[in-house]
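G., before I forget:
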Amino acid sequence: MAATLLILVAALVVSPVIVVTTGRRAGWILALVYLVAAATFLPTAFAVWAGDHPALTIPWIPELGVEFALRADGLGVVFTLIALVIGAIVLIYSSGYLASASWGQRMSFHPTMLAFTTAMVALVLTDNLLVLFVAWELTSLASFLLIARSGAGAEGSSMRTLLITFTGGLILLAAVASIWAVTGTSSISAALADPVWQENPTFAGIVAALVGVAAMTKSAQFPFHIWLPDAMAAATPVSAYLHAAAVVKAGIFLLLRFSPAFVGVPAWHALLITAGLLTSLVGGYIAISQDDLKRLMAYSTVSQLGLLVATIGVGTEAALAAAVVHTIAHALFKSGLFMLVGVIDRATGTRDVRRLPALARDMPIMCAVTILGAASMAGVPPMLGFVSKEGLLGAMLETPGPGWAGWGAFIGMAISAVLTFTYTAKIVTAGFFDGTNDREIKPVPWSLTVPAALPIIAGLPLALAVGVLDAPVAWAAAAALPAGTVPHVHLALWHGVNPELIATIVIIAIGVVTIWRRAWLRPRIERRQPPVDGTVAINELHRHMARLGHLVTRMANSDGPARPLAFIAASLVIVVGLGAGYAWRHMPPLQPGVSQPLDALFLVLITAAVLLVCSSDSRLGATVGLSTIGVVGTAQIFSLGAPDVGLTQLLVETLTVIVIMLVLQKLPLTFGRPGKNRRPLALTVAIGAGVAAGVATHVFNGRRDPSDASQYFLGSGAEQAGGTNVTNLILVEFRALDTFGELAVLGMTAVSMIAILSTVRHRHLDPSPRQDRSFVPTPEIPLREPGTLAHRAITQAWGNAMHIQMLLRATTPIIAVLSAWLFWRGHNHPGGGFVAALVGSCIVAMAYLATARDRQIGPPKLPLRLITAGVVVAITTGMVGLVVEGSFLKPIHVHVGDLHLTTSLIFDVGVYLAVLGLMFTTFNLLGTSATTAKQRGEQTRERADEAVEGELPGPMDTSRGERPIQFGPRTSILVQGREFKR
Amino acid sequence: MILSVTVGVLVAGGIYLMLQRSMVRTAFGVSLLSHAANLAILTSGVPARREDALLNITSAAEAADPLPQAFVLTAIVITMAVTILMLALSVIGHNDDLLRPPESGESHRP
């Protein structure tokens, strides 16, 4: 068994070389490989027929308990031999069929065929659910490739094939996963023997339906049958193999493989028998009206597989044995008939019966062989097809359920058999006798005719000596039955007079009448065909799915962020609200003391402020409300015992308000009116989200004791780190990587801001203020002549900026000392790098606000350098920790006398630098004045460029060359009443 | 728990603002949402314990839960970065109307 697979895999690997070196003889060589592989498989086969189960296990994913497990049983043997023997014949045929094919066509055919066979053999021999699934998908892929290689015309059909077979693959995945999850084993034989199938009928029913539908997609059962006729675009050898031995038989195999678990599950029987009979009737009916012989064959496969599926659905010993026999018979006659259609195609150049000449005279041997194959398919004695068709009919009588069910199924199958007889007869009569066309008939090489005839002729002696199949069929049926049952199978042409035989006689009688009256019958049947074509159906389905997809994308299909945000908020309402509502009953009670009187005060203040922010039409008013929320929120945070958080929040609020003010000066004064529907919609979503968030907070929070983690940090963690400010210790010592990420986010914000603003053109970034709808032109105020005090007071900013500049002289050193002090004490008291940096940033903010002229503070490239330095310092500290202590960012503690030093202080320097860099960037980029254009000042775009390039020369650099003006108590420009001069 | 009402009010206000046409309002909404999230995270510790988590003045048994505080501290700074970036975006073109087609020439609808 291992040798068989190894030979196939090895041949697969070297097949490109074989194709390159041997050209058109590659088919012969590979056929030989198949036959050798089949020969090496015979010992395994005989062992199985002696009642043994040769097995082989190779570890694959030991972590998951998945093994590449092989285990031969009766089913595996039959399907392996079919795949290899029919494969060999098809390969020989292909060497004739592809005789004039190009190198590329051969290259796309032979290796894919080998992969196909290998996957099929692995599928039928494996004992592992995962391997089974992978092999199943590989056969889907291989059939897709074999169809797709036929050129541009096959594109649509190959995609439809892929769509349907992969849908089935996903369903099989669901089945395999649930079997694995419930039985706890990935071994197929162990899972099938699990008692869960009897103990849990619901689970058994669901999995039975999943497996059944997966197999139906592959075996082209209604309504998944559409891909099979579609796949006719493929080359004839491919079709022959696909229909007789590989893909569609994989579905049959899957049903037989899982049959032991599902026999007795009502859903299994109902699904398979109904779908199978329906498919065989629909397929047979459509087949009758086909004019293309290949399409006729395709629908005939659909119909025959329907019979197989229905029989497997019956699930008795006799039914399963009959299904196995018919699988063998079908593999033989269908592969042969397909190849014969290829022969007719090659001889006449057409497969359309309306354009065929009467071929019987010119190709008598082919005609005879076709009649034999057709007889087998129609179930006429003494062919193998007769034996199997008898078995199928007999099996129907054993249909589980009420008494009428068996007879109903029997009659259904008999009707299907009449249809089969009719379309089979059409192949012979229309193909060989009725033709009127007188087109030229080309000679066909024996490498095409002999392989085509071989499997059909094999059906004759096999039927006469049908006893040789007893053991293989018995053991295959045994594998499809619950463990321990080995049916007694005795196949014979003559079983005495029974309902099957009578039915067969009636079928043949009706069939002969249809042949006799075919000229009258055919047009009457062919007019009544189903109006819906499968291809059209799939395309329609596809179109509707696309429309549904567009419908879904409408949730996000908007330029403004409001629509997607509304849907996100709405899903928050649904998920969080429902989850919290459900969890409410299961939560422990609230702890005492979670609500305190101060909270109520803060709630009132915050509610008022929120109402102000939301309702204010004025941007300034909203900003006031926002900062109120910030301040009250800070107080709330302090009251929760989080001094570090509160400090940070307060400083962030301060700086954010300054940034907002810088931005607001360039925006309209008011927000503008929302549309008619926006306010009620927004209110609905907002209130829903608010309620959901509130309920969730109430349900989930404040109901437990301190977590283990926080107890650790408060206890041994703080001791170990040598500090008392636990929050800050966590930030720089335990979760330093988070803090590092945060520092990087701050740096990247500055970089992104520069990058975004650099991509917008100047005139779009800072358009003329006249385009602003709230633009108020500077009023014409009659002033005294230039140079006077009054003129200067209106037109120049010196006077306004002077006071704050004077003030800064005193405050800057104080803030600097404060910043340093906060930085230093962070380890034990509220403070630390962030807080210190935010305080330091206040110096920057004040300095920016104090300049009388619109200019950058600091050298243009300073911010990016600060950020770079910050990141470098942080990484370096981290690397030192990695090298010395073996962990990235792990702090190193040093005691110098009483002084406790740690490298996390250096890390904090990095944080400090990055924050400062961001604030410099923000003030410089966002702080340009709305009216600077008139005053020859710098504008946003120029500053963004300079942040990267450094000082740029140009007409706008006039304000940059000057040194800042030094004001002092004795500066007398205003008093002296003249322009400032140093 | 009173704080859960505060969280609810802040979320409602935040979402309402985020659904408005103005980018500045959206930025304010993000700010409100972040306040709400911070309070929710802080209360996920043990909101009944409210002594500062400073071990030189508070005993470990009374100290507030320091772990959520560390989370929130990070969150505050990230919020600042996000708000600043949104404000920078809203000032482009001196108009923050999110439904107004940009004047830079690119088409409005895909």
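Strands of chain A lie at 55-61, 66-71, 893-896, 899-902. Chain A touches chain B through 123 residues (CB under 8 Å).

More on Monday.
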